[in-house]
Each structure stands twice: as structure tokens, then as C-alpha cells.
Design a protein that fits this description.
Layout lengths: L1 H8 L2 E5 L3 H12 L4 E5 L2 H10 L4 E7 L6 H10 L6 E5 L4 H10 L3 E4 H6 L1 H8 L17
Parallel strand pairs: 1-2, 1-3, 3-4, 4-5
Length: 143
Amino acid sequence: MAANTHEEATPVVVVLNRDLMFGSRIRSAMATLGLQVVVKGDTAAFLEAARTLGNRAVMAIIDMNSQVDWEKVATALAGDDALPPVLGFGSHTDVETRRAAKAAGVDRIVSNSQFHADMAGYVQRYRRSLDAVRGTVRVPHQK
């Protein structure tokens, strides 16, 4: 029972990604920060997980190389101040996707190489503190 209570209190990073190898890499990186990882393969499931986890979700990460429904992301971010900060990573040459992510309200966008070189560092810098109160206004992080 104690393990279950600990699991329920552990902060979570929610990830939109379909690459199983990446899921393993990010789980290892987040474990160094004491964070659990929930990986979802589609936009709707990703957003639902971020909502359902409430304040336990301290960061949401979007692999912009995946298929992303930016309209759903925009609607969710505009309509739910309790969602965690969102970090997107993708190709630095895919200007259209970077613009779509920014327009949707993604708080921080970095290149694939930047993210993979310092996953834990980016999450540590941009994650929501566990002291955050549910329902507080999302303030976009510095770009």
C-alpha cells in the first residue's frame, strides 16, 4: 500500500510520442529527477492524461515530429489554466510545425538536438513546481 501511495504522489511528465525507444530514454532521464513518465501516442489521449493527472502533471512534452492535432492542443491550452507547462521539440528546419506549436500556445520550443542533449535540464527548468495550486493561471515561460 505504501508503494501505491508513493506512486500517487510522484510528479509526472506527460509525453506525446509514438517512438518506443524514445519512451525508454525519457523514462531514464526523468527518473534522475524523481519523476514518472506517462507516454501517449495521440493528441487526445495526451491531453486527457495531462488533465486527469491534475497537479501531479508537472510538465507536458510534445514530440513535434509526431502527428499532432494542433487545433486540439490550442483549444486545451486556451481553455484549461490548470494544465502544466508544455515543451515541444522538433526539427529546427520544420518552420511550419514550429509556427503551429507556437500558435497553439506551447510554452517552450527547442530543436531535437537541444532536447536530446539535455532532456532532464529542460524539464527541470520549465516544469511546474509541486507547490502550484490547481486552477492557477498558466503563465507562459520565457521563450
